[in-house]
Design a protein that fits this description.
globular, Aspartate Aminotransferase, domain 2, alpha/beta, binds pyridoxal-5'-phosphate
Length: 539
């Protein structure tokens, strides 16, 4: 049947009545809840296609004129969308920070949509508001470890916020720097504050030429979005070269002092706890000292690495995080919550007041509406997923997960190091590492003649790119790639494979298979032959 008849009667049914147990959508639903892994392996990436081929399924720009039966549409979704999506659940998908989730999120997601609460205001969320505030409090306690009195005072205070829940690390970073900006240009008797009068007036009032943010080159691109949105300008993102992958406190201080000497103001130093590319952690304690000396806000981007605090063994790596004025965390990374769960935490619960907004019909003064201090307006109750996970795993459960990821990554690093045809590029601090294929004979040769590295690195880059692409296209496994400066080659960025070992289901055998597959692909490439042929000719 080509489209259902348009009638209000039909539309009411869409709101109220499922199509019956045998309908396609009901079958999908059943399969999903019976065995998610089986559903995914049956329906996702049924045939690896190019993006251009897939785009053909999504090429019409007109809104469909006629309604369609839900089941018919579900069939379409399966064939066009699900079949061509990415199986992020797969234990061999180890290229990004998105991984398998615990099963309980599936029924919880149904509950979340079923309730459809809007966290912007209490009138549409009721108990979800205190729940979200408690979740922020729990994460605040994990980072800042304040007293019981402190949390009794602030957890549910209408005039304070311990943080803000948002869709992810990007918005968390923007929120943190928004607060920092408004704090840096506060009201005086002649000036109503940057939030009222705007940036230009604020800079004139305080006599600053420019305002900027300091971070290492490994800072997430969301920081550069933040300086753009906050009207500081992308050029005021003062990124510092960090071949060691960690921001040097001495360099940060030097750059900051020089910048301020020229009549500018450092708005914030951003320390990264778990860089997106290599998982390194900046020296947070020392950076807190630098921020103090420069008189600026200290923000820690712990979107990836924050969950390490659950581990008594590895939490020490983040020493100094409690000195940050604000901290970004992403529960949809190492806390295994579905996407859309970011948080920013404020050390001082008054800080959120620098961005507080009111409106007549909601967010009235004195209300506890969460929307008064968040960038987003309407927002779902994702905090419930974090709340459930915190209870179901507990700190100890998360500790086990974090510890096993880090252990597994160290094992993988040893596998790479002991393999003659691979080169470990950055060792794991957390559950990330980078490496590349580098044929044994080439490695032998560069050991003896380090001056030939530059040209060879460019050949090796081509090899790494070719292997990564072919592996992705083959569809069995996935590692990502990036370009990095490292201590070994400080003057030249090299292309590397990037691996994130977050999926608890990834085994050592999976990792061995990935290396084997990469070597098989590599040794059949032109780039490999060229590298080894050149070597033979030279020696
Ligand atoms: C992932 C990540 C972000 C961005 O978070 P989104 O949730 O993707 O918006 C920011 N910083 C770091 C260090 C990250 O790892």
């Amino acid at each position: 049947m080509k489209g259902a008849e348009v009638s209000l009667d039909h539309l009411f049914k869409v709101f109220t009545m499922p199509e019956g147990k045998d309908s396609k959508l009901a079958q999908i639903e059943q399969h999903l809840s019976d065995n998610l892994a089986d559903f995914l392996s049956q329906h996702v990436v049924t045939k690896v296609k190019s993006l251009e081929e897939i785009e053909k399924h999504f090429s019409k720009s007109a809104v469909p004129e006629n309604p369609e039966f839900v089941s018919k549409h579900a069939e379409d979704l399966l064939n066009k969308l699900v079949a061509n999506s990415v199986n992020t659940y797969s234990p061999t998908f180890i290229g990004h920070m998105t991984s398998a989730l615990p099963y309980f999120h599936l029924p919880l997601a149904k509950l979340l949509v079923g309730l459809n609460q809007n966290l912007v205001k209490i009138e549409t969320s009721k108990a979800f508001t205190p729940l979200e505030r408690q979740v922020l409090g729990m994460m605040h306690e994990l980072v800042y470890k304040q007293s019981d009195d402190f949390y009794n005072t602030y957890l549910h205070s209408a005039n304070h916020a311990l943080g803000a829940f948002c869709s992810g690390g990007t918005l968390a970073n923007i929120t943190a720097l928004w607060v920092a900006r408004n704090k840096a240009l506060p009201a005086t008797t002649q000036f109503k504050g940057v939030a009222q009068e705007g940036l230009a007036a604020g800079m004139v009032h305080y006599g600053y030429k420019k305002m900027g943010i300091i971070s290492s080159k490994r800072g997430h691109y969301s920081l550069s979005k933040a300086v753009d949105i906050l009207a500081l300008g992308r050029q005021q993102m003062l990124t510092i070269d960090s071949p060691s992958q960690r921001l040097s406190p001495e360099k940060a201080l030097e750059v900051g002092l020089q910048y301020q000497k020229e009549g500018n103001k450092v708005l914030a130093i951003v320390g990264i706890a778990g860089t997106t590319e290599t998982g390194h952690i900046d020296p947070l304690d020392e950076l807190a000292d630098v921020a103090k000396e420069l008189g600026c806000h200290f923000h820690v981007d712990a979107a990836w690495g924050g969950a390490t605090l659950f581990s008594n063994e590895h939490g020490q790596l983040l020493k100094g995080i409690a000195r940050a004025d604000s901290v970004t965390l992403d529960a949809h990374k190492q806390m295994y919550v579905p996407m859309g769960a970011g948080m920013v935490l404020f050390k001082d619960p008054n800080d959120s007041n620098t961005v507080r907004h009111h409106a007549q019909y909601i967010l009235r003064a004195g209300s506890k509406d969460l929307g008064a201090t968040t960038i987003e307006g309407s927002r779902n109750g994702m905090a419930m997923m974090v709340y459930a996970s915190l209870h179901i795993f507990g700190r100890q459960g998360y500790e086990l997960l974090i510890n096993q990821s880090i252990e597994k990554t160290k094992t993988f690093a040893r596998m790479i190091q002991s393999h003659p045809d691979f080169e470990l590029v950055t060792s794991p601090t957390l559950s990330l590492l980078t490496y590349r294929v580098n044929p044994e004979e080439v490695q032998q040769r560069t050991k003896a003649q380090p001056q030939i590295n530059h040209a060879l690195n460019m050949e090796l880059d081509k090899l790494t790119v070719a292997v990564q692409k072919q592996q992705r296209e083959a569809g069995k496994s996935f590692v990502s790639r990036t370009r990095l400066q490292t201590e070994k080659y400080p003057d030249q960025a090299i292309t590397v494979f990037r691996v994130v070992l977050a999926n608890p289901l990834t085994t050592e055998t999976d990792l061995q298979n990935i290396l084997d597959e990469q070597l098989a692909i590599a040794s059949a490439t032109k780039a490999w032959k060229k590298l080894c042929y050149k070597h033979k000719k030279a020696s």
